[in-house]
Amino acid sequence: MTDAELALWKVLRGRQFSGHKFRHQHPFGDYILDFVCLSNKLVIEVDGGQYCSQAKNDEVRTKRLQSAGFHVLRFWNNEVIEEFEAVKERIWMTIQELRPHPLPGPPLEREGENQEHFLLSSSAPLRCAAWCVAMISAFCVLSSCATAGPAATITRPSITWPMASAKSKIVWVKTIERPGDFANNSGFWHRMLEVITDGEETNVIVRPYGVLRSAAMLYLADPGAGLVHCLNITNGSYSVIGGNEDSPLRSPIGLTEDDSGRLYITDSVAGMVYRYNPKDGSMKPFLANTGMRPTGIAFHPLNKMLYVVDTLGSQIVVVDQHGVERRRLAGRNEGIPIFNRPTDLAIDARGLIYLCNSLNFRITVLTPEGQVVRQFGEPGDAQGFFSRPKGIAVDSVGNIYVNDALMDAVQVFDQNGALQLVFGRKGVGPGQFWLPSGLFIDRSDQIYVVDTYNRRIQVFRYLANRGDEEDGDDADMFDKLLP
Asked: I need a labelling partner for 422 at 20 to 30 A (CA). Which of 60, 67, 308, 380 fits?
């Protein structure tokens, strides 16, 4: 075993890597695979790369593995040794892409074609008949509603989680899946027309990540679509930032706003931070040419600085509102890095900074100057441990919420790092997640969880020990907007 293979095997063996079982030197036909995860059909090969003939053999080998349904990652020996963290990150990202959906997907193309050929036929007579049936049915439904008295109220499910105190709990409020549903042109007949004419929905959520609530506006960063969704919760209007050929946005991730209401958007692919002015709709580069991979971002209400997470550099870059860099927060403790691929941060009412360290599997609490106050967390897949912490937020009483993507849950800790509650589980229903990422808590303790691979936002509410009802004013506004 080479030094590169040995280094990689140390992090892959024993289900250390996100709980996935890897095998070393596993036979497959005439080949011996360096590393393979059979559950995800992921093969990892480490090559010396000395000879051209070996490269050709590797290409043939890769094609054969791919034809058998395997996904193949190849790394050079020196790449593993010199860029070990980047190699681990690429393996982890590939595992997430290959991770199966909690429910079976739709049939494959042409699957069941013989059974459904008649139903799927696109002949004009059949489409006309379908249109007529749909219109008659809709007319009958509307007519019956008009004569049968008030329509029945649809009651959303009551889903709650108990906190440490019997008087406190988390309650599920809403699920937001289609921003277009809130637009003024998205009434019943508009959606009926889309269905019957096979019209394609526009402005759908593709792969959401960051979320921000600002007064009546709800912003959702969607790197999959290359834009930011903007929903006005008060009147239901919907718009986007970016999403066209002229937009500089490539992969928007993090969102925050300053005390003037200006929006800041991090773009991890472009390595940029943009500032957007909602008053005139202008967007300009705010922080550029830094060599960073910016992800999380937060505005500090006390010192008026912006704190930008640089995941690739494992640091926090502090800049003022003019875009001038003031300091960088990073460091090591007894040779061990304090930050290791951080992804997000949050700031509480006292001004303390909570940093989500993805590959250190811990939360680091800092002063605005970067002094470490405390840390908590360690790797594991049980409650109170971290598998892949992604997003972080703090509520009005100082509870710390952490999105754990691999646990498909949100863990809640007190200010000292003691576990209080875990809510959510793997799935597609209300209160269930599939690789959640961004997290935001507004002033009324409404919790917005970005359920990334379910392509939606789920809204929860923290009920503090103050006799709150399960639904506040915000919930009432959502009731008026959601169908």
From this structure: 308
**Rounded Cα–Cα distance for residues 478 and 447 (Å):** 13
How far apart (Å, rounded) are the C-alpha atoms in residues 78 and 55?
16
- Name 449's Cβ contacts closer than 8 Å, sequence gap at least 6: 391, 403, 410, 424, 433, 436, 438, 439, 457, 458, 459, 460
Strand partners, 404: 389, 409
Cα 221 from Cα 215, distance rounded (Å): 17
Give 51's DSSP letter. Answer: -
Packing angle of the helix pair 84-98, 3-12 (nearest 10 deg) = 50
CA–CA separation, 442 vs 461, rounded Å?
10
29-87 tens-digit pLDDT: 878 899 999 888 899 999 865 444 566 677 888 888 988 889 999 888 878 887 787 78
Q: Confirm whether pTM is higher than 0.90.
A: no
Q: Which helix (H) or strand (E) holds 78?
A: helix 77-82
Going through 320-453 in order, the beta strands assigned E by DSSP cover: 325-329, 332-333, 336-337, 342-347, 353-357, 362-366, 372-376, 389-394, 400-404, 409-413, 419-423, 425-426, 432-433, 439-441, 446-451
Nearest Cα to Cα of residue 173 among 392, 478, 452: 478
pLDDT digits (tens, 9 = 90+) for 373-432: 999 999 998 899 999 899 999 999 999 999 998 899 999 999 999 999 999 988 888 999
Residues with Cβ within 8 Å of 33's Cβ and at least 6 positions away in sequence, in order, are 23, 25, 26, 27, 43, 45, 65
Amino acid identity, position 459: V
Q: In which order are the strands placed within the sheet that holds 294-299?
A: 294-299, 306-310, 315-319, 325-329
Residue 225: DSSP 8-state: T
Q: How far is CA 351 from CA 215, 288, 368, 381, in A?
A: 21, 26, 7, 31
Crossing angle of helices 188-196 and 124-147, rounded to 10°: 160
Cα–Cα nearest to 66, from 17, 28, 13: 28
Q: Coil, strand or helix: which one is 53?
A: helix
* Amino acid at residue number 232: N
H/E element holding 60?
helix 52-67
Q: What residues pair up with 451 in beta bridges, in sequence order?
A: 456
- 357 within 8 A of 364, measured Cβ to Cβ: yes
